[in-house]
């Protein structure tokens, strides 16, 4: 079939454009590493993806243009619509869902190639060689696991799956599924001419593995799981890029896969957990774990009194958590901070790497509210300042400020780097109730002598604090 352009011209244009696409992907990713330039990085990478998509129409022998255009219109329309209506609190599950779609797309490409091999004559399949078959099978395996696993992560974050499912010998069952899937995958390569039944069974087991891997993982570990499956998706796309000899897919997959791998390592380090511990421990579900040595009682304070305390402070460090996201309180919190700044109070935001339900969740919320980037600091930058802070304002955060991470060797979070909120002169904790955090561990911080609890919805409490500060005059 004749393409839109002569083959030699089309090939030249495609090769040149893919060099540009690679440059845009890399520069876009680099820009995303800083909140100041992240928006530009997304646009730059998006332009690269647009160029790569348009160039796919020029491939020699390419057809089915109506189907391609229809798929792009439907997919693009759904993405635009869902992106417009999604709440910031639901962004983690949207990331999980979209990441799963990427893994599913890579698995679908592999499925087409493997099924084409199954339907073709043995001699034509042999021409592809075992390497191509192996790459297709590897991409299918990883992509299918990422697809089904990401859908389970979405269900957990969305509240559709309200508990983890575990049983004795579960990890042995998972290992058996892995072994069976790899064995069937190897048979696809060795046989040289896969059968339809073998391909279907291979995909069924890979999809099952993604489900059984993710169902036991506790909700507190979902940020790490999301970044891990992001790396899986990138790797699957890269493998299928080799199968299709598509440089753009190879580049995009390698960039996404390496970035996802690095992010997974950073997230696990921020929790002082190994990746194996995240995947197999089931941390984050179950009964509340009492912190060793907790004494005293929770000491409530009225928002009016807390507002006066903050109004006369010299330095206030704000620690946002998922409770702020749930209440959609970021705008009110920033209004509160602006009032304090106008009174001459030094205000900064302290962000823990795993605060929220996805990497960078709190940064996104604060950026949406218009908080200047120079007021936002990560754990390593801000921790030394708590010693001189008059007030540490904790808004819906829990495990990332729990002192047992430093003191209780029996605690599941022992050794996890935390924000040193307990070292401030006064700690104000905005919390909806007296329950434990997402990991189910009692927070020692709440019982300290210098801590006061301000109970209520974060947005409502922030409004009351604003009123109290204005009343001070």
Question: Quick summary of this structure?
Answer:
This protein has helices spanning 7-32, 38-55, 65-85, 91-119, 122-158, 170-191, 196-214, 222-244, 247-270, 275-280, 303-311, 322-327, 330-342, 361-369, 379-382, 404-407, 458-472, and strands spanning 315-320, 346-351, 376-378, 391-395, 426-431, 451-455.
Features:
single chain; 473 residues; alpha/beta; 6-stranded parallel β-sheet; 60% helix; globular
- Alpha-carbon distance between the termini? 78 Å
Mean pLDDT: 85
Structural class category: alpha/beta
C-alpha geometry:
globular
Low-confidence stretches: 283-289
State the share of residues found in helices, binned by percent: 55-70%
- Kindly estimate the percentage of residues that lie in beta strands according to DSSP: 5-15%
The tally of helices reads 17
Strand order, largest beta sheet? 3-2-1-4-5-6
SSE string, helices as H and strands as E: HHHHHHHHHHHEHHEHEHEHEEH
DSSP strand tally: 6
- The Rg value, from CA coordinates, equals 26 Å
What does the largest sheet look like? 6 strands, parallel
């Amino acid at each position: 079939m004749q393409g839109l352009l002569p083959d030699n011209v089309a090939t030249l244009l495609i090769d040149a454009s893919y060099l540009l696409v690679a440059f845009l992907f890399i520069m876009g990713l680099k820009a995303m590493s800083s909140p100041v330039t992240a928006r530009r990085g997304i646009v730059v990478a998006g332009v690269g993806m647009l160029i790569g998509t348009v160039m796919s129409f020029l491939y020699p022998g390419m057809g089915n243009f109506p189907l391609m255009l229809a798929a792009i219109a439907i997919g693009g329309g759904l993405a635009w619509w869902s992106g417009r209506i999604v709440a910031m609190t639901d962004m983690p599950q949207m990331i999980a869902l979209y990441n799963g779609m990427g893994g599913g797309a890579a698995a679908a490409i592999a499925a087409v190639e493997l099924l084409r091999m199954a339907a073709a004559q043995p001699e034509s399949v042999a021409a592809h060689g075992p390497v191509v078959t192996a790459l297709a099978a590897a991409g299918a395996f990883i992509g299918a696991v990422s697809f089904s696993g990401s859908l389970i992560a979405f269900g957990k974050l969305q509240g559709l799956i309200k508990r983890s499912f575990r049983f004795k010998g579960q990890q042995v069952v998972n290992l058996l599924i892995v072994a069976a899937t790899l064995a069937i995958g190897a048979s696809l390569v060795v046989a040289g001419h896969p059968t339809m039944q073998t391909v279907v069974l291979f995909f069924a087991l890979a999809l099952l593995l993604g489900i059984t891997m993710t169902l036991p993982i506790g909700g507190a570990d979902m940020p790490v799981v999301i970044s891990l499956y992001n790396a899986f998706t990138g790797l699957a796309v890269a493998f299928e890029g080799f199968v299709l000899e598509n440089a753009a897919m190879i580049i995009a997959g390698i960039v996404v896969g390496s970035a996802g791998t690095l992010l997974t390592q950073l997230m696990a380090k921020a929790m002082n957990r190994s990746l194996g511990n995240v995947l197999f421990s089931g941390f984050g579900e179950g009964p509340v774990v009492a912190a060793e040595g907790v004494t005293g009682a929770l000491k409530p304070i009225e928002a009016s009194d807390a507002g006066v305390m903050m109004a006369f402070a010299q330095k206030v460090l704000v620690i946002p958590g998922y409770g702020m996201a749930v209440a959609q309180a970021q705008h009110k919190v920033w209004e509160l901070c602006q009032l304090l700044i106008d009174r001459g109070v030094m205000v900064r935001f302290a962000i823990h790497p795993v605060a929220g339900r996805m990497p960078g969740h709190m940064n996104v919320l604060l950026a949406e509210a218009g908080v200047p980037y120079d007021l936002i600091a990560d754990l390593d930058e801000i921790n030394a300042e708590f010693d001189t802070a008059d007030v540490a304002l904790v808004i819906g955060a829990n495990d990332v400020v729990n002192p047992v991470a430093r003191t209780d060797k029996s605690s599941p979070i022992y050794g996890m780097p935390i924000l040193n909120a307990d070292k401030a002169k006064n700690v104000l904790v905005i919390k909806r109730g007296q329950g434990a955090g997402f990991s189910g561990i009692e927070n020692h911080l709440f019982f300290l002598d210098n801590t006061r609890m301000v109970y209520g919805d974060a947005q409502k409490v922030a409004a009351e604090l604003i009123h109290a500060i204005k009343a001070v005059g």
